[in-house]
Amino acid sequence: MVLNEKLNPTSNPHLPFGDQRGAPFYGKDILSVKQFNRQDLAYIFEVAHEMREMVTRIGTFDLLKGKILASLFYEPSTRTSSSFTAAMERLGGSVIPINEVKYSSVSKGESLPDTVRTLECYADVIVLRHPEVGASAEAAKYARKPIINAGDGVGEHPTQALLDLFTIVEELGQVDGLTVTMLGDLKYGRTVHSLARLLSLYDVRLNYVSPEILRMPAEIIEEVDGKDIPQAEHRDLEAVLAETDVLYVTRVQKERFENLDDYDAVRGLYVIDAETMTRAKAEMIVMHPLPRVGEISMDVDDDPRAAYFRQMEYGLYIRMALLAMVLGKA
Ligand code: NCD
Questions:
Q1: How far apart are CA 91 and CA 157, in angstroms?
Q2: Residue whose CA is closest, atom 8 of ligand 1?
Q3: Would you list the domain boundaries of the chain?
Q4: What's the 14 CA to ligand 1 centre distance in angstroms?
């Protein structure tokens, strides 16, 4: 078998009946949002809609019956890991959960390529979260089965960005014409790295509000600039709050700081509370990938513009859609 050869119709002639060999994402890795165009996104959202309807109507169904997902998390997770598990189980499949790598052979010093080669003997798709940038791409080089990046250090979090974009579409009807303000830790927050890239496929204005030491990386600003998207950086949210359609709040990523004094200097700098919301548009949404650690006060939770809990539910449908697609069933 050729290294790096992925599942695809030519290398896998023995597909069970019902597999859609021409499906665009069949056998593909999901490593970065850079791999998607607008047409792909429209397709993913269409499948996610179908998933929502099926879950609402019948709860659990058999689309991925007999398929196995290996869920390999080298970093903590609540939403991403549990929503992928729920997604697989709602589709009738099952999951090998490796959430505590310290209890696996990783703690004996096993390399990522070997761990991935092991899991693909038992599973049809691998979801991977890892502290190093590029870890999923590295794993994908060795794996024949699809790898889904569930966060690679400060790099990307493509499935989160897909669910974030889906949230925007569902809540506000469209993406073109919107002003999106990202707030908080734009340096270490991988979700905003993926989201800024994904939004650059649309006609949007982007504001980045952060402390000086947590600015959006220059590499991403340049990439987005290459798509002719207006971008502006600010230290003060008030400068852009009134024009904002989507306020995307992030946690300061304490675990990424080398020096905790730096963390202490910037924690708690931005807090959205009910009083802040009085200066926001009547029709806008507040999003957060969660967990929150004080950036959004609980007195915002009952505001209809607070979309962060609904955002989690959209994540289930997006992850169901992605699993069905990479396994050739959508
Ligand atoms: C995010 C992550 O892990 O990057 N969480 C998530 O997946 N919803 C954001 C964070 O940890 O702050």
A1: 23
A2: 289
A3: 33-156+314-326, 158-312
A4: 38
Q: What tens digit of pLDDT does each residue of 34-73 get?
A: 999 999 999 999 999 999 999 999 999 999 999 999 999 9
- Cα(109) to ligand 1 centroid in Å equals 26
User: For residues 247 and 183, what is the distance between their CA atoms, to the nearest angstrom?
Assistant: 7
Question: Using the 8-state DSSP alphabet, how is residue 329 labeled?
Answer: -
- CA 291 to ligand 1 centroid distance, Å: 7
∠ CA 70-74-76, rounded to 5°? 105
Tokens at residue 1, please?
Answer: 């078998």
Ligand 1 pocket residues where CB is under 6 Å: 79-80, 151, 157, 160, 190-191, 251, 253, 289-290
Q: Characterize the bridge pairing of strands 147-152 and 94-98.
A: unpaired
Q: Model's pTM, two decimal places?
A: 0.93
Q: Do domains 33-156+314-326 and 158-312 have the same CATH topology?
A: yes
Which CATH code for domain 158-312? 3.40.50.1370
Relative orientation angle of helices 112-122 and 135-142, to the nearest 10 degrees: 60
